[in-house]
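ok so i was messing around last nite and threw this chain in just to see what happens. nothing serious, just curious
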Amino acid sequence: MRTDKPSSDLALMADFAARRERAAGVLYDQFASRIYGLGVVMLGNDQAAQDLVQDTFVKLWRTADRYDPQRARLETWVLLTARSLAIDALRRRVLESRSLQSVGVQPEDDPEPLPDEQAAVTDLSARARRAMGVLTSEQRSALELAYFGGRTTAEVAALEGIPQGTVKSRIRAALLRLRAEMAKESGR
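result:
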């Protein structure tokens, strides 16, 4: 049973596509912290996570008119956009590193984060690890392969030897459980 509000999501995205500031604020308030958290977990540092938030909203701004509530909930569409951009960033890192190494230059390490940034990232990472600990092994495996391994649900299904629908169910259940755990830990 779908509990989302596709008509209100569609209206929000129509306003966002029409460049209405209120819609941009609502969308940002609704998703920025979750995109940032995804960025910290996938990309491993504060600056990359902040860049992911910005890049995601720029992409959403450019593609807002393509949102279709019949294909995906707004939350799913936004987070998959962020995940896709994070995977692209990881691939760029690997290519840049290989490219530099091929000409005999060692890539520079990311600059040291400021202490407060490092503390925030460390805290968020610890909370995310604890939340991952409440998942079943099947949920954790599907989520890690899909979100952190960059695999499609079809690829996860083939690797796990299970139907694609089961993979989707496990990932959805895992995300819902993670959201609840993260909210509980942050005192919401």
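not much to say yet. Helices lie at 6-17, 21-43, 46-63, 74-102, 115-132, 137-148, 153-160, 164-185.
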